[in-house]
Queue: 3 jobs
Job 1
Amino acid sequence: MLEITFLIVTALIILLIIHYQSKKVEPFEDFYLQACPSGYSTLFYDENDVASCCDGEVKYSKCFGQRQCKLGEGPENCARLILKDYKEQGSQKCPRGWNYYEDSVTNKKGCTKGVLNDKLSGPRVIDPVLSPTCTIYSDPNDNKNKINSCFNQKQLEDYVCFGRGCKKSLVSLVPDAPPLLKIETLIDNYRNASSGIPTLAPITVYSRKSVLAYFDARNMQIPDPTTNISIDDVAIAYYQNRDITISNSPLFSS
């Protein structure tokens, strides 16, 4: 009798799990906005008296712009369309895994590593640790030069660290030039390694890409660009015991 009861209870639990999984929805699937999102400047009521948004002129309850959406529930609600657009924008402008957003009140655009708020205008939790953000500037120079731009944050996130205990960060030396991507790590040092067993060498270097961008913006020549030990690929080659000449010239004058 106990075995039959156990089987019945087990079967019920399995059915409940299957039912729950069939009901799971994607984030924001049942969510809808109560105000027109950024880019949809006109609120109007369509021929079915449904509150809608249009990105252009409205006449006789019809949108004559290129895009429109509904504020109510359903497949054409604004939240679904906006999130689709945000996903496309984020894949191009945000660090991997971050969420794109636009704030029509402040006219700001950016990305956050956190969950979006109910208005899709920023992170749900305003906290630089839990929900770090970056800014997408309208000025291309600001995107290149400002340390908090999403362009630079994307460069930082995309950089593949090397060595052990690797830490990477952005360092801004002057406001009118791109920040440098700094790498602090422990690298295997094969130079003069006995029996082929390397020692660990602590190094601080900068990515070649960021160094080139920095010096190009300042119309300056890089000190010994192919042999400078402060550039990442030169340091890696040197400590792997390749037959190269290095320079210890400081990259940046104090």
Job 2
Amino acid sequence: MVEIKSYPELVDTIWTFVQGTLEERERIDFMFSEEQVAKQLEIPWTWDSDSCVFGVAQALNDLVNMGYCQGRDSFNGHRWRHVSPSASCPDVLPSAFFITPPLPKIPPLRRRSLQLLHEHAIRHEDGITFYTLVRMLHQDVLSSLFSTANEAEMYEARGEIIHAMSSLKKEDFVAGSISSGAFTLRVTLKGACWLLVAQPLLKLEERASRLVASPEALEAIKLLISAYSESQRNASGILYVAFEKLENASGGERGLISLLGQPRTYVSDFKQALQPHRHAATPAQSRLTYQECLTRMTDIIERYITLREQNGH
């Protein structure tokens, strides 16, 4: 059985099954049903099972909405009988549209709301991962996201939560309905992709917040999170400042290299790659792409936080 650990991976995997060759995309009889896709995934196909409704069927619907596939006939306008790859489909995996920096900027409360919905809606069944539609009462969401018991403050917070969820829905991070007393929502492919990139960073931020004696760790991870939502030109400067926070707290470049226990080039190549391109690219800039710089900084911060935790800071 295929083991798929995230919803974006499910959509990408199904696309690899149905994309076909350039010649096959021109054929009118080249199409796939839900049942055929489920068989490819080695999962039992049952019309009303969550893995088929919110997994396979929703993934196929996302592929149609993004222009990767064409839907052919539908069941009551909700699920496609068959899909076929579009002749002019994009040449990158579907998730690449949403996980390639810069990521959308999501304010803190919306971020926490999205994370809460993720925790309630995510499912892993039959070897695949997907999001179901879940109903959460406003009061339960308030209790999870706010600690205040003051009635006036809770009334204000309720308005903030409704606005946050409504904004997430408007921006296509979640889908479903919002009533006067409850949210009935699921995380969309766009929301799932954002979480796939942001969740590890948010976990690092949480760990760094506990290092009271090493405030530079929290400052660095906050800058890194900000860099993920900036253009490459702006992100390079932000990453350099984040690196300097750790470098200065370690007694300079040599001190940080010694602390991390990595080769000198691990740090020096990274610093050079962040320098502005005045003329020809430096060897380091040729070796490290923009995405690799983000990944390298994430690794440096994670190593730094781990070492500080081990040293009891």
Job 3
Amino acid sequence: MMDILVTTPKTAHELAAQEAKFVEENPDAYWFRTIKGRPNVQVGDRVYYVDNGQITGYGIVFAIEYGKLQCEATGKVYKGTHLKQRKWIPLSNPIPFKGFQGFRYIDRTPKLRERLKQAETCSDRYT
């Protein structure tokens, strides 16, 4: 398992909210995170999100695609590695975490896996 952590840029909050609403209203829809390069992530791994200085939840990867992908909600075209996710699992206790560019492997950040397990204890009922 190679779960990763990504940040939603402050400039993309409105766009992310628009995409989340679209996925919520369309059961066959999904959201995705585009990453440069090819991270060591597999179907079933988690993508945790830092939003406004907190890790707020995660999505579970159900498919990985490479190349160009157009967002159905916004029409914007993204290029890179696309980690597709369908289900959002919020953390019951968001974790303060400073935003960053790119992605990080959860297990390479000291004690983060332990903190996430503690924050997920009440969230497990959503999985």
